């Protein structure tokens, strides 16, 4: 098994970072009246997913803290899915884009749950 030395090597981190950047680019086209509501919220929650993963990785020495930060990341991923739903219903993104991004977060959520359920494998 390959030893992972940085959170940046984690597949779940890469997925969440890349998707947050994709959301950032997409939200540049959202209406100005959404700037302080939907746009800010979806950017914040999507960025928080990978930020919490990076914190969790550094807290592997403390199993409860590790799981807690992953749990925070899981909650932020679910929140991002909610904002994606609003984006779709408000017609800022199309159905295909919504489904693809939503599915990426489903995959991220699955990876996070697996990490929490197997936290002993990550401890140092």
Record keyword descriptors for this entry.
single chain, 124 residues, 0% strand, mainly alpha, de novo design (two linked rop proteins), elongated
Please summarize what this structure is.
By secondary structure, this protein is mainly α. It has 4 helices and no strands. The protein has one domain: 23S rRNA-intervening sequence (de novo design (two linked rop proteins)).
3D architecture notes:
The protein has helices spanning 11-27, 35-58, 63-89, 95-117. α1 (11-27) runs antiparallel to α4 and α3 packs antiparallel against α4 (95-117). The chain is mostly helical. The protein starts with 10 loop residues before the first helix and ends in a 7-residue tail after the last helix. The model has no long low-confidence stretch (mean pLDDT 96). The chain has one domain: de novo design (two linked rop proteins).
Give a topology summary:
Layout: H1 11-27, H2 35-58, H3 63-89, H4 95-117
Helix pairs in contact: 1-2, 1-4, 2-3, 3-4
Describe the sheet with the most strands: none
What class would the helix/strand composition place it in?
A: mainly alpha
CATH class: Mainly Alpha
CATH topology: de novo design (two linked rop proteins)
Which shape, going by the Cα principal axes?
Answer: elongated
| Poorly predicted residue ranges | none
List the helices and strands in order: HHHH
Radius of gyration: 15 Å
């Amino acid at each position: 098994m390959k030893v992972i030395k940085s959170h940046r090597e984690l597949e779940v981190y890469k997925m969440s970072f890349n998707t947050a950047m994709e959301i950032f680019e997409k939200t540049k086209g959202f209406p100005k009246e959404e700037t302080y509501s939907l746009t800010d919220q979806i950017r914040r929650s999507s960025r928080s997913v990978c930020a919490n993963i990076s914190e969790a990785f550094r807290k592997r020495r403390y199993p409860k803290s590790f799981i807690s930060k992953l749990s925070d990341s899981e909650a932020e991923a679910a929140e991002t899915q909610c904002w994606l739903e609003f984006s779709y219903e408000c017609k800022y993104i199309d159905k295909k884009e919504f489904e693809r991004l939503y599915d990426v977060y489903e995959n991220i959520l699955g990876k996070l749950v697996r990490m929490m359920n197997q936290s002993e494998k990550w401890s140092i």
